[in-house]
Amino acid sequence: MRVYLNGRYMDAEQATVPVTDRGFLFGDGVYDVVRSAGSELIEVDRHLRRITRGLHELRIALGADRIAELRDISQTLLRDNHVEGDAIVYWQVTRGAAPRTHQFPPSGTAPTVYVIASPIALPHALRRRGSSVITVPDVRWSRCDIKSVNLLPNVLAKQQAVDAEADEAIFVRNGVIMEAASSSVFAVLDGELRTHPLTTAILPGITREIVLELASELRLPLREFPILAQDVPRATEMFFTSTVNDIMPIVRVDGRSIGTGRPGPITQQMYTAFAERIGAVVGTH
Ligand code: PDD
Fold this sequence. Notes:
Blueprint: E1 2-5, E2 8-11, H1 22-26, E3 29-37, E4 40-41, H2 44-58, H3 64-80, E5 87-94, E6 112-119, H4 124-129, E7 131-137, H5 152-163, E8 168-173, E9 176-180, E10 184-189, E11 192-195, H6 206-217, E12 222-224, E13 227-228, E14 237-242, E15 246-253, E16 256-257, H7 265-282
Parallel strand pairs: 7-8, 7-15, 11-12
Antiparallel strand pairs: 1-2, 1-6, 3-4, 3-5, 5-6, 8-9, 9-13, 10-11, 10-14, 14-15, 15-16
Helix pairs in contact: 2-3
Bound molecules: N-(5'-phosphopyridoxyl)-D-alanine.
């Protein structure tokens, strides 16, 4: 497996960063995950915009040309590794390696840029069955709009889900469903598709954005409006969305069935529209 690190392509085993890298010491960096199918990157411009914004918010100085290069680097890795089917490309940029100080290192410290492309098996069997999720308190910081590599609460939440034999953990803050450990959350309530509005407390999920666009094209009743945890028993359908899952039905929350306990019609309609949209992007439809 060939990867990219700081301007060079190399075998994955040779890709190492100094122990003084601020990603290692402080989680001081951002990342993004892009889907590809048939060697085509899907919605890459939206991912480039999101990482650009994250870098800007964290004041990590990676030039616009270096950010734009992530597209070509990703395509080179997909090609060189012969990754032709469903795959993800992972980008990570940290503030670089420097003697440990909490404040920023001296200006001129080069950010660390790492890219890897890997095949993925999409969770089609789980999608047919529907997933189980648990709810956990949202103990994260108040800038979850930044896709930071600081993922400790997400790691702990996901492990709690795995320990409970569930597939995902949903963060609840002040009685409101925010998003999940690595995905955005939707519910159908009173016949209306709902998801939390964009604030600094959730990630602006790209799959979420596409689902909202598709739902509006399909003229489904739709509202970016908080979903209260206490309303979950009334939800007729729920699903979560992410680059690696597309649209994943939720059929159980904390052991209680949602709707009929099977993936619902609106979720299926959204998935069909989404798959068509991806197919259209990669030219298979
Ligand atoms: N996670 N919310 C959180 C907290 C996430 O980590 C993610 C994605 C999403 C969905 O965003 P998108 O639709 O742009 O993938 C929402 C990625 C896949 C990850 O951490 O691996």
